[in-house]
Structure formats: structure tokens, C-alpha cells
Amino acid sequence: MTTMADTVLDVQGLFKKFRRGELYTSLRDLIPGLTRRLARREGPGQLEQRDFWALQDVSFSIQRGEAFGIIGGNGAGKSTILKLLTGIMRPTSGSIRVAGRISALIEVSAGFHPDLTGRENIYLNGAILGMKRDEIRRRFDAIVEFSGLEEFVDTPVKRYSSGMYARLGFSVAAHVDPDVLLVDEVLSVGDYLFQRKCVERMNSVIANGATVVFVSHNLREVANLCRRSLLLEKGRVQLIGPTAEVIRTYFSRSQEQRAIDAETGVVLTRVTTHDDAGPRVEFESGGKLRLTVEARARTRHEDLAVVIRIVDDHRYPVFDTCTQRLGAGPINLEAGQAVSCTFELNLHLAEGTFHVDAFLYRYVTSTNYDGWHSAATFFVTGAPEVRGVVTLQPRLAAFDIE
Amino acid sequence: MRHSLREILDHRDLLYMITWREIKVKYKQSVMGMLWAVLMPLVIVCAGLVVRYAFATASGTPLAMSDFTSVTVKAAPWAFFVSALRFGTNSLVTNANLVTKIYLPRLIFPLAAVFSQLIDFLIAGVVIGVVLGVARVGLSVYLLWLPVLLLSLIVLAMALAILFSAASLFFRDVKYLVEVFLTFAIFFTPVFYDSALFGRWAPVLLVNPVSPLLEGLSTTVILHQGPPVLWIVYSLFMTALLFTASVLMFRKLEPFFAESV
């Protein structure tokens, strides 16, 4: 049982309304706009139609020292939640209670001024992120060291590369020492080494008892850092629970059957990943994955092939194959006929998130009848000994010290 | 109101840093550097002397030293007032990326804009002090009015900067309105001339709360006389009223800033 005293962030019944379309941005537009409205006797009811809910009835609470993930597709309302938590926007209704200082690793270099040097920007950005001047002075060296930009600290940041810019921004933000830290996608900043450094820093922030709210598309990082997560869909909470379960739900929802567009002659209707037991999205590295692709023809189509491609989380193609290359003959479909083919793959993949793209292709005419990017997503776990995209299944063949 | 001021007080380091940034950025990569602070008042003084000369010629009286000193002492505060309003009005729009991305008390931006102009005013003030010394204007007990008058002018500039900065966030043409207003305001404000010139219509000019303050500066510093106390009280009252109203309005609108930029 947890007591209220442990709750560091408590969100209850959060609603946020946005307005579609344009607001009046100049007096010149406002005045004719108002007259038009008076002339047409447009009531407030009509204006209401332009409103939409970005968030509806979102409630959650986070305990001190907890790392909490927020997962959801584009437009699910993740950024809106963060904007409300930081106080940039005010909720339409609902309450947010924070015990202590809340700080965001969002837009970490927003406060930079290009004409100022790295040193000056550290002080400026530190103040913007809520640090006192002597606090920044004390941590100045640590910040510079963390960024790895010692040589450039007296160079105006407009001469920095975008990577350097982001690194300096993150380094300042990472030294704020908040009670609640909000993180949004920043771990994709900089090169691999810097990213590792960021993850380590986050881990130590968590270890030091800070509370972290983590919003990301990078589900691997969410899974690694957060034990509990929230799944957001169209502004509503779908699920709050253990991260693995939330991620599974998220993926299985994205695998739901595709709506068929009446316009096209032949369409991919469904792409699912499963094993012998049934549909699943989490697989052991080295295990077997079955991938089923279903398509339906509205009109007669001949000489088709089903192509599948696996891409990694950065959308880099890892592998592709098709029915034709695997020896199946051309697929001929009469109007109304459906086809379903299942590929069996040996997952020689390293840990990570992978996506399946599927295509309906006619080789003779080089026509792509239908393409579905990220039709399915799956998750590979259990190969801690390798990093990268694939596993070449390494074995230490010899190990001599002379 | 109290909450807003408390919040600014809590964020004084930030206010300092933002002000410092405005000053630093302004003087970086500028040829004239500190001379900028003197340029604007100097131009106003020159223009004022031309106007005064025209007046003198028209009325057949020779141009006196007090014409020059009186314009000088009013030019720098006016230059400050104008540039404070100009920077203040744009302060939220130019910091739109901070307004929409990070939470901080937004009142800091118009305040920092005014404070950063204060540095120029200070430099110009020192130069004027020297000029007046050379012109043998001398000192008097009436100089004690100086802090009251200047403080009121600064707070008035803050009030309007706060008001216009928020307004221009919602309506982009407020900026141009302010610009037009500032360009012609010098004709409605006794900078080049004294309101007494207008005889019984003088009070009309003094309704502008800046006017009594500038006149007060001229009478106390140059003429060594007491300022028009009633009108000064009126200015102080208007300043307090405008400042309170602006802060309250700003506070009311602040939650909508991020969505309206």
C-alpha cells in the first residue's frame, strides 16, 4: 500500500480542449470577423464544433523515485500532457499536484541564444530551467565536462553543429536536479556514446530518488527505464500497468485489421506476427517468428507477389523477401478472392524493435499495387551479449593470454 | 497581484539573466557599442534644438541656454521610454520559443526588456550629468524629486510594456499600432517644448501621464523650482493604476499564451 505522502505527482481528471482552425491573430482580422459573426448571428454553439479534446479524463499518480512511461502514437496527446505538467499550458479542467520542483528535458536548447557563447548560454539556459546563479556556477565544470565541449565553450553557439547544440542543451538540463524530471525523446540526441551517457545519467537520476516521466517512441528505452507505463490513445488512457504489458497492448492494437479502401483493386488487409501458440509481438532472439499477410482483391488481378520487409527502429531495411523468390508461383486472384500467406522466419536479430512493411507487387510490370509501412511491429528480447541490429550468434572460439 | 510580484522575486536570477542577455546581445557585434546609448538622445536633442530655434525665430526671442538644457534633460528619459515600449511590446513574440516550450513566469520578458533599456538610460544619464555640469546648471534641493520622477517613468514604461507585450501576442498588428503611436507621441508630449506654451490648453497635454514627469524633470533639474505637484500626483496615480491593471490582465491571459502564439 502506498500513502499519499509518497505521491510526488498526482493528476486527476485532466481535460484539455483545443480549437481547430485559425484564431484571429491580428486586430485587422478580428474586427471584420466580429462583424461577420454579428451579421450571421452565429451563436456560441456553432463555435463549439470547432473544439476538440486533446485529452479526456486522464488520471494517474506517480510515486517518489518511480520511472513512469507514457506511450502512444502520434497525436495521442503525449506532448499535451507534458505541456500541462510543466505548466506551459493550463488544463481545461482537472488537477495536477506536484510535490517539489518539476523540470523538463524537452526542447533542451530552446533557451539558447545563437550570438552568445557556450559559457554564456550555460548560465542563461540554467536560469531558464530554474537553477540559481550560484547553483550553475557550482555545476559549471560538470556541465561542460558532460557535454564534451570543453574546447568550444567560448565559441558562440551559432557556430556549433546541431549535434553540439543539442548536447550542450541536454548537459545543462541533465544537471538541474529536479524532484520530477520530464523527458521527451531527448535520448536520440548526439552520437551513440553520448546517448549511452544520457541513459546512464537518467539511471543515476532515478537511482538518486528523482521521479522520471518518460515519453518516447523509442519503446526499448521506455521498457529499459520504466517499470510502469501509461498507454494513451486519442487523448484517453487505455491502460496503466507494467511497461511490458502496455507495450504489448500498444502493438497488438496497431495490428488490428486495416480498413479496406473501396478505390483500390487489391489491398493488404492484415499483417500479423505470431508463433505456434497464436498472435504475439514479443519474441526471443534466435527463435522462430511466423508472419501472416492477408490480401483481398476487388477486381481480377494476376501475377502478384507478396513482399515483406523487416526494418529496424530507425527504418533501416534489415531484410526482405517475397513469395516469388521463395518459389511460389504468381498469385492470381479473381474478384472477391482473398489470399493469405505465412512466412516463417528465424529471428537472428539483436534486441530491439522491428517493423514489418508489406507490399503487393507485380514483377512483370514493376507495379506496386499496395504498400503498407509498419504494418506490424514486434519486439526482440533475450540477446544481451550482442548489440546492433542482427546477431551473428557469436561464440568465443579461442581465448589465449600469452 | 501579490502572487505575480512574489513569483518575479523568486525568479530574480532569471530576470537578471534575461536582462543580461538582452544587453549582451545588443552590444555584441555592434560597431558603435556603448555609443548607441547616447545616439538616440543626441538625435532627439538636435531635433529639439531645431524646433526650439524655429519657436525662437517665430516669437523673436533669442535661443537661450535653458532651451538647450531643458531639451537635453527630457531627451534621454523620452528615448528610454520609447525604446522600452518598443522592446517591451515585442518581448513576448521574440521569445515565443521560450513561451511555448518552457514554463517560466512570462512577466519576466517585458520587465527584462525595460531593464535592459535602463542601462542605456543610465549611460545617457551620466553623459547628461556631465553636459549639465559643463553648462553650469548647478544643483538644488529640488533634485530630491528626481528619484520619484524617474521611478514613476520606469514603472509607467513597465506597465505599458506588460500590456502591449501580451496584446501583441494575440494580435500581431499591435506592434505596428505601438510603432505609429510612438512615432507621433513626441508631438503630444512636451519634449521639445513646454506645455505652458499652450496657455489654457496646457492641461490637455498633461493628461498624458508622461508629460508631467518630463516637465517635472525640466523644472526641478534646470529651473531649480518645485514641480507641478498636483500633476505629478496625477502621474503617480496613473502609473500605479496602469501597472496594477496591466499585471492583473497579464496574469489573466498568461494561461493562453502558449496556445495563441
Describe this structure in words.
The complex is a heterodimer of chains A (402) and B (261). Chain A has two domains: 4-20 and 50-250, 3-Layer(aba) Sandwich (Rossmann fold), CATH 3.40.50; 256-381, abc- transporter (atp binding component) like domain (Coagulation Factor XIII, Chain A, domain 1, Distorted Sandwich), CATH 2.70.50. In chain A, 25% of the residues lie in helices and 36% in strands. Chain A has helices spanning 27-40, 44-48, 78-86, 118-128, 133-147, 162-173, 192-207, 219-225, 243-254; strands spanning 7-19, 51-63, 67-71, 93-98, 102-105, 180-184, 211-215, 228-233, 236-242, 266-275, 278-279, 282-284, 288-297, 301-312, 317-322, 331-333, 338-346, 352-362, 367-381. Chain B is mainly alpha-helical. Chain B has one domain. Chain B is 77% helix and 0% strand. Chain B has helices at residues 2-10, 12-27, 35-59, 65-94, 96-101, 108-134, 145-170, 174-188, 202-206, 210-222, 229-253, 257-260.
The average pLDDT value of chain A, as a whole number, equals 83
Helix- and strand-based class of chain B? mainly alpha
How many helical stretches of chain A? 9
- Assign the structural class of chain A, choosing from mainly alpha, mainly beta, alpha/beta, alpha+beta, or little secondary structure: alpha/beta
Q: Please outline the major beta sheet of chain B.
A: none
Secondary structure: number of strands of chain B = 0
What Rg of chain B do the Cα atoms give? 19 Å
The coarse silhouette of chain B is globular
Give Rg of chain A in angstroms.
26 Å
Low-confidence stretches of chain A: 42-47
